[in-house]
Amino acid sequence: MIGNGRISATGGNGFAGGGGGRVSIHVFSRHDDTQIFVHGGSSLGCPENSGAAGTYYDAVPRILVVSNHNRSTTTDTLLLDFPKQPLWTNVYIENHAKALVPLFWSRVQIYGALRMSVKMHLMLNSKMLIDGGVDSLVATSLLEASNLVVLKGSSVIHSNANLGVHGQGYLNLSGPGNLIEAQRLILSLFFNVNVGPGSVLQGPLDNGSFNDMTPRLYCELPDCPGELLHPPEDCNVNSTLPFTLQICRVEDIILEGIIRGSVVHFHWVRTVVVQSSGAISASGLGCTGGVGKGRIFENGLGGGGGHGGKGGDGYYNGNFIDGGDAYGDADLPCELGSGSGNDSLAGATTGGGIIVMGSIEHSLSSLYLDGSLRADGESIGDAGKQGSGSIGPGGGSGGTVLLFVHSLTLGDSSIISTVGGHGSPNGGGGGGGGRVHFHWSDIPVGDAYLPIASVKGTVYIVGGFGRGHGRAGENGTVTGKACPKGLHGIFCEECPVGTYKNVSGSDRALCHDCPLNELPHRARYLTVRGGVTESPCPYKCISDRFHMPHCYTALEELIYTFGGPWLFGLILLGILILLALVLSVARMKYVGGDELPALVPAQPVSRIDHSFPFLESLNEVLETNRTEESQSHVHRMYFMGQNTFKEPWHLPHSPPEQVEDIVYEDAFNRFVDEINGLAAYQWWEGSVYSLLSLLAYPLAWSWLQRCRKKKLQQLREFVRSGYDHSCLRSCRSRALYEGLKVAATSDLMLAYVDFFLGGDEKRSDLPPRLHQRFPMSLVFGGDGSYMAPFCLQSDNILTCLMSQSIPPTIWYRLVAGLNAQLRLVRRGHLKISFGHVISWLETHANPTLSTYGVRVDLAWFQPTASGYCHFGLLACAIENESAQPSIGSQDISLLPEQQSCLHRIHRENPLDHLRDCEHSVTCRRNFGGILHAKSLRMLKQKKAICYPFSFIVYNTKPVGHQDLVGLFISVLLLGDFSLVLLTLLQMYSISLLDFLLVLFVLPLGVLFPFPAGISALFSHGPRRSAGLARVYALWNITSLINVVVAFICGILHYTTHSSKKHLNFQSLNFSVDESEWWMLPCGLVLCKIIQARLIDCHVANQEIQDFSLYSSDPDEFWQS
């Protein structure tokens, strides 16, 4: 069929328009654009009611179209029969057409009931009204759509009997006004049901006539029907079932409108989503009477209905009448709410209905509720119900909401309500609250537990208000299925932390508190997935630094492994003493042969060693060489400076007057420039020293001594072979590279250049005798610090020179006694300690030296530009008739000014006149000045940053008992190391950062005292042992900085955690994290201070083995 044209079977126009005709086309292949008209004719007498539309049927696609071409009409197009074979694919009723399908269509086949089976059922602003009459045989109608059912534009499907809507696809009520209602409504087999905003699903009808089609509620039954809990598997429309609205075998339901019914049941539904605008309601649709109906007075005034709670008592004329009784099972409710009790009275109220979701066998997978589920009792005033006169019934009781669900989500605006209705104003009692029950299916337990409910909404079960003097109804019940072990409450939540539950049930009281005596005081209970089911309850320590099961720190685990703090302390002390004894015995065996007994005074050592008889001639040769060397000595010139990186050694450019006759001044100045340049340090050497001073001062000291030693070797090598001695006048000295020698004290802080004659000067006045050298400077080595105390080093040259006036034994004894006193001089306390030296010189030294015509005074020499100066002795000659002639009996010639000075000293008070001539002599000799009681007050001292440590470590007098001191040092050394390890363990228990801070600030300073102490104790020789002991003391005092860091870390940790209180505390508990955190650092500080004192005693015992050097009696001193 091809072409364009018009096919028309329209009704004629007239006073009443004619109806449209019928057109049927059966063409397999159509390629036309034909217009087909089957509309009714226009009605001139009633323009809004044109003739009814005709029909157009296309046989190939099996489509029936009823169209009125947009002519309005109120006349129906009668559709009498739909073919069964073949089935029509689509029926279109459009363009203001109206179709009528009579109920009594074919009484033979379907008994007058509607049986519609289509692929898609689409309604737009349309109505389908099914009148089932009063015959129960034709009371059930079925609408089946295999694909789609859509209602739009306020479309209505209404049945005054039973209606079943079945499908396999999608049911959508898409907007306001859409309605599907029946006395009993069943929706089944859809994949998805969507009730849009304003749309309604309802069963039974509002204000429906009471007849055989009206659902019979089970109001008077004492037990609820079993079909509510165990519904049939099929989803057929069955008037014997208690449901008034059932949605069966539907995958997903999305509700934004309203579902309303007396008994609403969701069966075999997977997911229900109720949006905020959606509601499922059975409010006021329960029983007027019922098991819990209220009692009434003769005048109709009564109490409220009861259900979950007793109904409120009514009041009239001073008398109360009971409300309805509570009934039903709170753990599995399935009853309708009861009403005021007499439906024959005007304004009688009804109870709430019942909403059941799921069943025992088939629960909902999930329910998301952001709208409302209501089964409230009816109140006086609802739906126009008003008591009249003295009649005032009570409120209806709340109904039942029974949810068989697997998971539940209640949104912020969600409401589940079974509240009772309010009584009448005349004194009616309020209805009792209903019942809400959550029957969970497959509650996961243990590690598989997941919360089954997320509740942010509200559940209302309160009783209704009584009005007048009527009483309010009692509250209803909200319950949940008995929870398994570990879970509690309506929503089967985990028992609170610190409780356990070992029985089934939902009561919070079943969650028993865990025994506190099983919880360590540094532990907190764990949140266990699925709750705690048995005692003891699992717990964990409050921090990872504590260890299970007792939540001890690593230190406390060690302590309590050995029985607690007291027993551990005793065991540790015993082990330390035992190890110290073993250490002391090993030390005595190892170094015993190298040390002299402390109580045996040192014997004077002969300058010639006679212990090697076969080398005696060599000893004589060496002695002869030393004597010849001293006889050719002219002058000793001291370097200025203390050989540090800031103030290296340097010589003044002007040659001293004692050597002016044996050197060339210009060449000497060049020699001084070369020496000073060689004595200076490289910048990087000082930088290394500064860096090491910040990191570990003992290493900086070792680096400084290494550089000093290297510098001395360079200077000596330069003078011995690198310098051509061109500054000397002697040809022999220049040729043999003799005449100049560089030497230094053992502490490497004082260096000097000795000038010798070459032998070809032919000068009778050279070399000068001792008294010609007076006043002579004897400069001290050291700087008065702990590591380098002042000392007078008497070498062979000085000894030979002094022997010209003083016997060697006297000189040796003087030097030993003076050095013993100089050991006690402390830098930073020079005024006091030098006062003792001056006093010793006046009481012990000068009275004896005066017999030999010599006097010595304490003096300071050679001030540098930075203010540093050397200290030493100024030796002067004095006249004394009783003075013995010097060894060798040579005449002593003095300079004129020296002679005059000495004459005045001899004639009058020696001290006063020596001070008078001091200025003229010392200024000429470039001396700083003699120190005496008055000048000491003017002495300025620079205090370094380490000045406070001088109160802890300083040189002291010997105490003897070397073995006992060594034993105590061994005990303290082992104890110190033990405390260090325990402190580090404590810091590690606090945090890894604290451990690293204590260990590396200063780097490893807290660990080095132990190897340094072992090295000092097991060293050979007193001198080497004393030197290593000083290094040990330096490490010991340096490690106090690490202990201070430990204190700071402990204070910060304690102040941070002091506010945290724990429930359980142990008595006599050694807890390094509470108030006793300071014990180990304090013990370590005390141990180090005691160690420092014992090390000083050990050093004194090693360096001073003759106690008589400190004798206060001069006679005893010289006799020894």
Automatic annotation (TrEMBL):
Keywords: Membrane, Transmembrane, Transmembrane helix. The chain crosses the membrane at residues 566-586, 964-985, 992-1012, 1032-1054. Residues 478-552 form the DUF8003 domain. Signal peptide: none annotated. This is DUF8003 domain-containing protein. It comes from the Eukaryota. It comes from Carya illinoinensis.
